[in-house]
Design goal:
Blueprint: E1 31-33, E2 40-44, H1 54-64
Antiparallel strand pairs: 1-2
């Protein structure tokens, strides 16, 4: 897979999700909870997959970033 620094971000469709922006919030739709700290996220509850708040998302990015 080469020396890329992004880890495994393949969705199984051949499309990377590494740089996908947060979806625009739908009015009156509640926000999903962060799976790590239970804080509100930028994602609606209908968002599929793991949802992280901005703080946990940043910390996860720091943990998975290239160290060299």
């Amino acid at each position: 897979m080469g020396d890329d620094c992004f880890g495994d971000t393949d969705t199984g469709t051949g499309r990377s999700t590494a740089n996908d922006p947060a979806p625009a919030p739908v009015p009156d739709e509640p926000l999903a909870e962060c799976v790590l700290c239970r804080a509100p996220t930028e994602y609606p509850e209908s968002h599929k997959g793991i949802t992280l708040c901005p703080v946990c998302e940043w910390q996860e990015a720091q943990r998975t970033a290239c160290s060299g």
